[in-house]
Design a protein that fits this description.
Layout: H1 2-29, H2 38-44, H3 57-62, H4 72-89, H5 94-101, H6 131-134, H7 138-147, H8 149-160, H9 183-198, H10 202-221, H11 226-248, H12 258-264, H13 270-273, H14 276-293, H15 296-299, H16 305-314, H17 321-336, H18 343-361, H19 371-381, H20 385-388, H21 390-410, H22 417-422, E1 438-440, E2 445-447, H23 453-458, E3 461-463
Antiparallel strand pairs: 1-2, 2-3
């Protein structure tokens, strides 16, 4: 028994020695940090267009819920200045995190203008066709318009502004980036647009759609973050869904408005498909957050001695800031390769981008160095794919609606639609395949296969009225 105990003791001793030796070896391997790469320096350089506050859509979004009677543009500019000033004073956001934990508002007025719904909720723009339900919502729409006059006016101001540039200091945790999405006002105005189209006010309906599509295309072409781009894509999806409903409706005179409809269904331009600056902005946000991890004050922020000891022994020795920033920059540069590509080219390039992003997340021997940083970047890198896929899907949907319009205007019989589309121009073809869209004679609809999950839910078909 004693002999077994001595053997176990010796085994434990040698295992402990081996464990400590391996730990010290890993610490030694992780002592040096990398020099910052050219990729990192290029992305870290602020490159956001300087747009006057009075002309910037982003500033108007920040001020959208300004208190009643307050100039929303001035309020948005004030919130932006407060955010940027606070970010300069507190570069690693310790003070803001403390305030958030304490439930204190940051850069936000308690008396902001609230949306009044009176218990009346409009359905999502993606819960079936918009037009068939429009007239039944007329009373609710009228109530919501009258109850929210100031917010409706602010949304119309948004539509008149010429440029978009997110000029806030990058900060993932900052509430300034999360406020100001005018979803309620836009939803009501889109419902009113549908009502107008069915009530003899087609010109007014198309004027709204023209202004709204132009607004969110300017956001796409501007300099924004992931949140900004995704918001624009979602809103444009709703707008083009209504355009498609109008084209498919016999109650709407598509022939009388063919020029406007053709203008609305112009495919996305290269700047609108060019989300390269978005990934530079994302890198700057990530870099700010990653840099805070290695900050001295952050090292002291752990609540207990046990937490501090664990972080000191197993976290900070294996997190190398420069190496992590370099890896994050490489991940963002990798995604930038997809910017500005037409959907057909996007699919080809995406395979390589996806392979490299997945490789960054695969655990291997290289993870002996900077394992914490590699883990943080690897997990984040693979998440972007589902977001960037939405943009070429939007372009494909616009092409689809354009094809729908061409078939409708030509009054093509169902059996001749495939032949008609074969002779159509590229703006009416599926940009993923550079071939005509799929045609279903039974459903009397055109369709394409979406790449992103949201578009599969939103719908990728365009119905034509029976001839």
């Amino acid at each position: 028994m004693r002999r077994a105990f001595r053997i176990a003791l010796k085994l434990t001793k040698w295992l402990a020695i081996a464990g400590v030796s391996i730990y010290l070896l890993l610490v030694l391997v992780n002592l040096p940090d990398e020099a910052l790469t050219a990729e990192e320096r290029a992305l870290a350089e602020p490159n956001r267009p300087a747009v006057p506050d009075s002309q910037n859509i982003y500033v108007a979004l920040l001020g959208f819920y300004a208190p009643p009677g307050i100039d929303s543009m001035a309020y948005g500019a004030k919130r932006l200045a407060q955010h940027n000033e606070a970010a300069a004073k507190d570069p690693w956001r310790h003070d803001r995190v403390a305030k958030l934990r304490a439930g204190q508002p940051i850069g936000e007025d308690k008396d902001t203008l609230k949306w009044i719904d009176g218990g009346r909720k409009l359905p999502s723009r993606f819960e079936g066709p918009i037009l068939p339900n429009a007239l039944g919502q007329a009373q609710d729409v009228t109530y919501l318009l009258e109850a929210n006059v100031e917010l409706i006016a602010r949304y119309r101001t948004l539509q008149s502004l010429p440029q978009f540039s997110n000029t806030a200091v990058p900060d993932i945790l900052s509430p300034v980036l999360l406020l100001g999405a005018p979803a309620d006002a836009r939803s009501v105005l889109l419902a009113q647009c549908a009502i107008d189209a069915l009530s003899g006010r087609s010109k007014r309906a198309l004027e709204f759609l023209t202004a709204d599509i132009s607004l969110w295309r300017r956001v796409l072409a501007g300099s924004g973050t992931l949140i900004d781009e995704m918001r624009a894509i979602t809103y444009l999806a709703g707008d083009f869904r209504l355009v498609s409903d109008l084209i498919s409706s016999r109650e709407f005179d598509a022939f009388a408005h063919r020029a406007t409809l053709a203008s609305l269904t112009t495919p996305l331009t290269k700047p609108e498909l060019g989300f390269g600056q978005m990934f530079a902005n994302e890198f700057q946000e990530n870099a700010r957050l990653l840099s805070s991890i290695d900050d001295e004050e952050m090292r002291e922020a752990h609540d207990s001695w046990l937490s501090r000891a664990g972080a000191f022994l197993f976290y900070f020795p294996f997190f190398k800031l420069n190496a992590t920033l370099n890896r994050s920059a490489h991940a963002m540069t990798n995604y930038q390769r997809l910017a500005g590509l037409a959907p057909s080219d996007y699919l080809l390039a995406k395979a390589d981008v996806k392979k490299e992003s997945e490789a960054m997340a695969d655990f291997g021997l290289t993870w002996l160095y900077n394992p914490i940083g590699k883990g943080l970047v690897g997990v984040a890198a693979i998440q972007y794919e589902g977001y960037v896929d939405r943009l070429p899907d939007l372009d494909a949907y616009i092409h689809l609606v354009r094809a729908q319009l061409e078939v409708r205007l030509a009054s093509v019989p169902s059996e001749k639609v495939p032949q008609f589309l074969e002779k159509a121009d590229a703006e009416s073809w599926n940009p993923y395949t550079n071939r005509p869209f799929q045609w279903s004679p039974t459903a009397h609809s055109l369709m394409f296969d979406a790449v992103s999950q949201p578009w599969r839910k939103w719908g990728t078909t365009a119905v034509l009225p029976l001839q």
